[in-house]
Amino acid sequence: MADEMFDTPLLLSQMKRNQWLSEGALRRISEKKLLDLIAHARATVPFYRKSLDGMPVRSMEDLQSLPILSKTVVRDSAERFVSSAYDRRSLQATYTSGSTGIQVPLFYSRAESAYGVAFETHHLTECGAGLFDLQVRIAHYESRPNLLQRLGVFRCRYLDVRADETENLLHLASLKPGILISYPSILLPLARINSSEGLGLRLKLALSGGETLTPAVRKEISSSFGCPVFDRYGSMESSWAAWECREGSLHIQEDMVVVEIVGEDGKGLPDGKAGTIVVTPLWRRAMPFIRYSLGDTGSFGPPCACGRGLRTLRVARGRQDDILVLPSGKIRSARSINLMDDIPGMLSYQIIQENPSLFVFRYVPSGGLGAKERKEVESRIRAGCLGEEVRVEFEVVPSIARGRTGKIQTVMSKVRADAGSGE
Ligand SMILES: [Zn+2]
Questions:
Q1: Which whole number is the average pLDDT over 15-44?
Q2: CA-CA distances (angstroms) from residue 201 to 180, 225, 334, 346, 363?
Q3: Distance 249 CA to ligand 1 centre (A)
Q4: Whole-prediction pTM value?
Q5: Strand order in the sheet with 135-139
C-alpha cells in the first residue's frame, strides 16, 4: 500500500474538509473505507480470514453481524492480527499502557503514525491554536519530531510524567508554551501549584485526555492557567477517535474511525441510549481492529450547534481515583506509578493505595513475580511517590474485577484527596 495515503498534511486536509459534510455524506465515506478495510483484513490477516469466513459485509449495517473483539483475544493472539501485506520486521511494536491493566501488543507501520499527528493538529487548530505556538506534553514517552515539527509547525517539548510537579511547573514557566497537553490527573496538581505558589503561568489552551475530565477539574485547570481546556477521547488501540469543539461537544472523527454504541447483544443502540463503545479504526491496516471494544460506556449525543456533520459522543466514564495522596499530603497523579506493563510474570494487575503509606499490588500471575520483579515494582512505586516512605505488599489474585464501566482500574486510591469535589 502506498505510504502517501498516510501523509499527515493530506489526512489533515481531508479532516478539515470532511468535518463540514452532512451526516449522510460522511457515512458514505466511512462505509467505503470500511468495506475496503474488511476486504483487506479478510485477504491478509489470519485472524479475520477465519472469523469473517461466511460473513458477507456489503454495507455499514452488516458490520453489526460481526463479532465484537475484546482486548483479551488480541492479547492472546496478537501475531494473528498482523497483515501479511506488511513485512513483519518493518513494523514497530508497542504495548498499550496501564489504563486498563491488560497489556495489548500493537504493531503499526511507520506511515500509520501520521494519523495521530494529523488528528491532534486538526484538533488544536480547530480550537484556536496557532501553527507556531510551542506545545509542551507531559507524558511517559517522547516522540521524534514529525515532518511538520521539523518545519517549525507545532514544535513540541516533552516533560516526564513521573517528575516532581513543582519541577515540571518551573520548567514550564521557563519554556512559556502556548499549549499544554497531558492527563487531567497531571494537569490538576500543576494548576494548583501554579495558583498557590503565585507563579501565574498563562496558557493559550490546554488539551486533556486519557482519563475522565470532570467539570470541577476542568474549571480548576482553566482558571489557574487562564485558558480553555479541551477534552478528547481515544485509546492506544484506536488512537484518538473524538475531539471536543469550542461548543463543548465531543465529535467523532467519522471519516477515520467507525464508532458504535452497542447493547449486550452486540447490536447498535439508538441515539441517547448508553451502551459499550466499540471502535473500528479505518486507517489501521498493519494490525486491523474490527469492532474492538474499548471497555467504556457511552452514548451518541445530539447534533452540535457548531454545525459540523460529525456525530457527537458522550462518554460515561465513572469517577476514577486518579489522584494519590502521599504521606506528606502532596497530591500525585496515579500515572506516576501505573507503568508496570513491561514487567514479565503477570497477566493483569491493580495497585491499591490503602492509606498514604501503604500500597497493595494485586496481580494475576502468568509465571509469577520473582524477587527481582517484585523489587522492580517496589522501586517504581517509591520513585513515583517521590521517594517518600511507602510500603508495598503483594497479593496474588485469580482475577481482577472490572469496575462499573467494564474497565479494570489500574490504580485505585482509598485516600480521599480534597480534590475534584463538586461533581
Ligand atoms: Zn461542535
A1: 96
A2: 11, 6, 24, 42, 41
A3: 5
A4: 0.81
A5: 156-160, 135-139, 179-182, 205-208, 229-235, 239-244, 250-252, 312-315, 292-301, 275-281, 257-262
Give me ligand 1 centre to Cα 71, in Å: 31
* Spatial distance between the Cα atoms of 368 and 374, rounded to a whole number of angstroms: 10
The Å distance, Cα 248 to ligand 1 centre, comes to 6
The set of cell numbers assigned to 108 is 503499526
Indicate the class that CATH gives domain 128-208+216-227.
alpha beta
Domain map (residue ranges) of the chain: 2-86+234-317, 128-208+216-227, 323-413
Q: Does domain 323-413 have CATH number 3.40.50.450?
A: no
Q: What is the pLDDT of residue 407?
A: 56
Tell me the Cα Rg of the chain.
21
Q: Grid coordinates 501565574 are at which residue?
A: 200
128-208+216-227 has the same fold as 2-86+234-317: yes
* Fold of domain 2-86+234-317: Rossmann fold (3.40.50)
Amino acid at 51: S
